[in-house]
Write a structure and sequence with these properties.
two-stranded antiparallel sheet, 7 helices, 2 domains, single chain, mainly alpha
């Protein structure tokens, strides 16, 4: 995916970025934390840069910035879906994002209990483990 049509004067890693990328990057940093996002973007190679563009422009701008749902509700959805998909790396990121978006540990626990019934106990057990690692890292 090329952003040349929407390129601004801004650049990341020497690459021109679109206004959508800029907006998405701002949202991505606010939800996941600047250190993580900046590390991901700075490590991007020619091979995976198109994926960074896709995720930042479409996930983090087009979807996360839509007015229909607030960030807290989007975090609830993501925790359930990512748990069901058994994607621990992404789940840890989104547990941190959920806390940043105002969810409590108790609400996250309830989401994972719901996952256990509808998606299976193994998915929920792994989700609880991942969340605990994030809580420990965050000191909460």
């Amino acid at each position: 995916m090329s952003s040349t049509a929407n390129a601004t004067k801004l650049a990341v890693n020497g690459r021109s970025i679109s206004e959508r990328f800029e907006r998405g990057l701002k949202t991505r940093r606010e939800v996941l934390g600047g250190a993580y996002v900046d590390a991901s973007v700075s490590k991007a190679t020619d091979f995976n840069w198109p994926m960074q563009e896709l995720v930042t422009e479409y996930c983090w701008d087009e979807i996360w910035n839509r007015p229909g749902l607030d960030r807290k509700f989007r975090s609830i959805l993501n925790l359930g879906m990512i748990s069901a998909l058994n994607r621990p790396h992404e789940l840890k990121l989104h547990v941190r994002g959920a806390i940043n978006n105002g969810l409590t540990k108790e609400q996250i626990r309830e989401i994972f209990l719901q996952v256990s019934i509808y998606c299976g106990v193994p998915a929920a057990i792994d989700s609880f483990r991942c969340a605990q690692e994030v809580f420990d890292e965050m000191g909460i």
